[in-house]
Specification:
The protein is mostly beta strands. It is built from no helices and 13 strands. A hairpin with a 5-residue loop joins strand 5 and strand 6.
Length: 204
Amino acid sequence: MSIVKLNNNGVKNATSFGSISSLGSMVFIKKLTASSSATLSFVDGASSVVLDNTYKEYLFTFNNIHPSAQADFTFQGSTNTGSSYGVTATTTYFKTYHNEAGNSTALAYDTERDEAQSTNFLKLNYAITNDNDSSNSGFLRLFNPSSTTFAKHFIADNQGEVNTNSLRSFVAGYFNTTSAIDGVQFKMSSGNIDAGDICLYGIA
């Protein structure tokens, strides 16, 4: 990697930079836009989706996910290119919230929403309201899903509105399988995803 050289004494005064080589990049793969959608699925090889050993990390971004009714935003993985979703997983879940009135706050581990060796759909954020101005936004990072040696780790960070609360949920866990994860599906715990989009990126 070449050294970055500033043409002035400080970054704030710099007008040009030297070259930077050999750094990773975020490669856009696919965008799915919800429209009263029961599910949004990214399956390797389907509709130009890449979810294989091309990248060691994949990033899903969520932009204004709006449910048809108050519900949890969830996901699961597949080891058979989307034929079924329900890979055994263990997760940890904690949350922070603050209401609009400014008189209710919390930072807490949430044992009701973690999972222990479960095949359920896994919660990314919960009880997102379907008010016209409500939605959920955030991201999910999935590491080395094509590995046939290790469990598949993931980390998620999501922010939503829940009954006039700003609710941020932090989730981490792993799919307890050495089979490749070649499909990921997102859905609400009930009802549809009325609007919003999910983008998939590969981290090179």
